[in-house]
Design brief:
By secondary structure, the protein is α/β, with parallel strands linked by helices. It has 10 helices and 10 strands. The longest helix has 21 residues. The structure holds adenosine-5'-diphosphate and magnesium ion. The site of magnesium ion has 3 residues, from helix 1.
Length: 281
């Protein structure tokens, strides 16, 4: 994508996700405050911010896990249904900051679970194991294996998920999310716990997913990862979106620098060089 959008307002026809004024309160705590965010077809959008900024809570509002206290989320022009499985069916899939796999199921079985929302076979058909069921099951296995190929896990198909190294568990979560055939994939800290080589490979994987026509919204702390990948990046601080834009806009914004240093710019400490903040241009 060559265009960058720095303001919410007018959007090209291909707007996939349109979150408006999303606010999430827990008792007296406002975790997400009046956040607008759009994701267009084919985009990779970053969401960054210090710990506790409300990033995961915002994801939860986009996936039916939470119903926002205020605001609306539209996906493909439809207001998001208030249940996670309905959101998955509508075409939004996600991975979790804390990996959620079925540890005692195989790698392949974990991906098959992810296909559940796309298979029409009912319980009775499954119990009777008729020809329709067997055909659908064969089709599902084929698609699941193709996703394991795509994510580089095909040779681990028969292993228990819990025996995979951490980086591969993260990839398996992505494979499982892709199995629901999403139009938008939300990734919550996909490189957490990965070594630098795995992180670079994860960048390639995200680009490959986008090349399949799937838009991506990604939360990450690794700034190199974010700025290598993202068409636009939004910054959340204390629940509010303080900046959104391309790499240069975000990197050079004083409020972002302040948020990451954790101290006001007005009172610089003598020992902190101001040009020492990640990421460097
Ligand atoms: N279910 C919840 N109940 C109460 N407070 C919550 C809940 N989920 C998140 N929070 C609070 O909301 C704030 C934002 O958390 P979170 O969205 O996890 O931040 P981030 O992902 O940016 O690190 C934190 O103060 C957190 O303690
Ligand atoms: Mg989080």
């Amino acid at each position: 994508m060559t265009t960058t959008t720095t303001t919410a307002g007018t959007h090209p026809a291909g707007t996939l996700l349109d979150a408006r004024g999303v606010t999430m309160r827990f008792g007296g705590l406002t975790a997400v405050s009046n956040v607008d965010l759009t994701v267009d077809e084919g985009e990779i959008i970053g969401l960054i911010g210090p710990n506790g900024a409300g990033k995961t809570t915002f994801f939860n509002c986009l996936t039916g896990l939470y119903v926002p206290t205020e605001g609306t989320v539209r996906f493909r022009d439809q207001v998001l249904p208030p249940k996670p499985h309905l959101v998955t069916q509508a075409g939004i899939a996600r991975t979790f900051q804390n990996i959620r796999l079925f540890a005692n199921m195989t790698v392949l079985e974990n991906v098959l679970v992810g296909r559940h929302s796309r298979t029409k076979q009912g319980l009775l058909s499954a119990l009777l194991r008729g020809p329709g069921y067997r055909r659908a099951e064969a089709d599902s296995r084929e698609k699941a294996m193709a996703l394991l190929e795509f994510t580089g896990l095909a040779d681990k198909a028969g292993q228990l998920a819990r025996n995979l190294p951490y980086g591969e568990q993260r990839k398996l979560e992505i494979a499982r999310a892709l199995a629901s055939e999403p139009g938008l994939l939300l990734l919550d800290e996909p490189t957490a716990g990965m070594n630098p080589q795995e992180t670079r490979a994860a960048e390639d994987l995200v680009f490959a997913i986008r090349d399949r026509g799937i838009a991506i919204l990604v939360i990450e702390h690794d700034m190199r990862f974010i700025f290598n990948l993202c068409d636009r990046t939004a910054v959340l601080v204390q629940g509010q979106k303080i900046v959104e834009g391309d790499k240069e806009t975000v990197q050079n914004d004083e409020r972002v620098i302040t948020a990451y240093l954790g101290e006001p710019l007005e009172q610089p400490t003598d020992s902190t060089p101001t040009n020492d903040t990640e990421p460097s241009a």
